[in-house]
Amino acid sequence: MNQEDCLFCKIVRKELNSNVVYEDDEVFAFEDINGRAPVHVLVVPRQHVANLEEIGQLPDGVTKRLFEVASEVAEKLDVTEGGYAVRINNGQDAGQEVFHLHLHVLGGKRLGMP
Ligand code: 5GP
Ligand code: ZN
Predict the structure, then answer these.
(1) Helices in the chain by DSSP H: which ranges?
(2) What is the pTM (predicted TM-score) of this model?
(3) Is the pLDDT of residue 1 over 90?
(4) Contact 52/88 with Cβ under 8 angstroms?
(5) How far is the CA of 33 from the centre of ligand 1 (A)?
């Protein structure tokens, strides 16, 4: 999978539509197309990395920003008080479908472990 073909790279480049929740030079956040909770946002680095094994390729600070933006999104969408989950599906057994690293921010209902 190269960056030309990657679904989330296309969303980040705005070649595909999404409901953008947040964006800056490093991080992009958009609503999941198939929300599994009242709040379900995906937070991605603009730079393509497939999974956690490639996270070392990201510039210093971007990993921290991913988590900060997850928190900012939760604040913006008003789930900080009720609580929310930040989840990374990494690889086949975790059900990863899109191989561009992303954090799921899930909130607005009671969430359990799988
Ligand atoms: P994964 O299973 O890889 O952790 O999560 C991929 C997520 O991307 C899924 O929750 C799925 O609903 C979401 N998704 C797949 N295609 C699209 C799309 O075209 N647009 C948006 N906004 N989300 C998508
Ligand atoms: Zn990508």
Answers:
(1) 7-12, 62-76
(2) 0.97
(3) no
(4) yes
(5) 6
**pLDDT(43) > 90:** yes
* Ligand 1 geometric centre to CA of 59 (Å): 24
Edge to edge, the sheet with strand 27-31 lists: 20-23, 27-31, 39-45, 103-107, 84-87
53-79: b or e for each residue (b if 16 or more CB lie within 10 Å)? eeeeebeeebbebbeebbebbbeebeb
> Catalytic residue at 40?
no
Index of the ligand 1 atom closest to the CA of residue 16: 19
Ligand 1: does its nearest atom lie under 6 Å from the Cβ of 98?
yes
3-state DSSP percent of the chain in helix, strand and coil, to 5: 25, 20, 50
Please enumerate in sequence order all residues whose Cβ is within 8 A of that of 27, keeping only pairs 6 or more positions apart, or say none: 43, 44, 45, 46, 62, 65, 66, 69
